[in-house]
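Illustration 12: glucan endo-1,3-beta-D-glucosidase.
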Amino acid sequence: MKLSNTLIVGNIISLLSTVIKADQCTFSGGNYYCSETDAIIYSNVGLSSSYQDVTNMDESTCQCSQQSTSFSGNLSPFNEELSVHFRGPINLKQFGVYYPAASSSSSNLKKRDNNDANEKECTTTKNHQHRHKRDVAVEVVEVTATVFVNAKGESVTPVGNINVAETFPTTTAAAEAAPEADNEIVSSYIKVSTILSSKVQPQEEEQTTTSTSTSKSTKSTSTSVSAPVAGAWERASYFTPGSTSNCTFMNHQGGTAGSGTWSQCFGNSISFANSDGITGCSSATPLDDVTVASGKEFIIFSGDSCDGSNDGCGYYRDGIPAYHGFGGDHKIFVFEFLMPSDTSGSAMNQDMPAVWLLNAKIPRTLQYGDASCSCWETGCGEMDLFEILTAGSDKLISHVHDGQDGGTQDYFTRPTETSLKVAVIFNGNDNTIHIVEVSEDFDDVLSEDTVNSWLNQAGSAAALP
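Figure caption equivalent — predicted structure in token form:
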């Protein structure tokens, strides 16, 4: 999650083809919400483009240097290493990462057990921080490259060599006026209005989406989908409260408790997180069975540390505990979590939990702060898996932010009392990412049949009338 005044709005024409009519949706807290869903499929993911990669952070001048970095390939840039981010209120019960058996992505991650790390005492000092299966319903979202629009509704030049099919004169004024009428074109503006209004919340850049949707009461038509590779999937990383294997928990408490750093220029870096997820620690420590409070954030990297050479980590800030993320064309993230209500404080993003993925280069330089000190603004990749947009909402929205864009006003129901188990499947063969509610156990090995069943659960969708 980053705050940004940059708005990226897509080709309105493409929204007209399958957009949900306004009278089927509910307007709440500045956003439209449509149908509850069990699965979201992002299709057409991946493009050839470039982003501005950080090459230096100068403490003497408080400036960062960047250079253009090209990317391409299936799912790019989400085939690059990703870090996994959480914002409270959240209680994480399980987390895991799977790769196809005997794959290079799996073998390159060193199996490092942090189980005994929590035996070390952690102290803190002053913080300088700036700041059950159900009937399946599926949302299918096609992501495409689109027109970039700033906060004034003016078209701006996109970063890199993104192909923009056509420009459509969309403005915030038109989007805000749209709910007054009720024709098909206005429905598309309502969709865009949702995108624009959500920018006031801690969400990011937008572009175009084409989507089809089914409500939970709609009978869907099944089509067969196969796993991206044949055979089993091996668990490369795993967490349960108090225990980790090949996972490293971090937060933004650098310079406060023996890890990371702080400076007048760039504030707190990332640091090892204590077992509460909130304070810092001097060494890698598993998260306990705790509910992390509203507005507090923690991150999971792999257990494989960056070695300072050309090992895929890129440039990272001096003095931080730098670890690899989770890369590859084919990978599966699994989660089990609760998001109970927390209205006890007045933190920024109070009672607005979220789970999202970032290009792992972003937190290793500067996740929050000067845009030139991170590749985020130039499209190196963020995927919001589950995000509450307004305080106290029970609707978790998903969205993609990079040189492409896709999202939906359909939602998963926030798990306030019973935990939600989900799998996020990256399929580099057909350029899709599936977010699927599941009920199976997250064992050491996932069978091909299990993965196929998840993909086919997310592969059922009914066309809108």
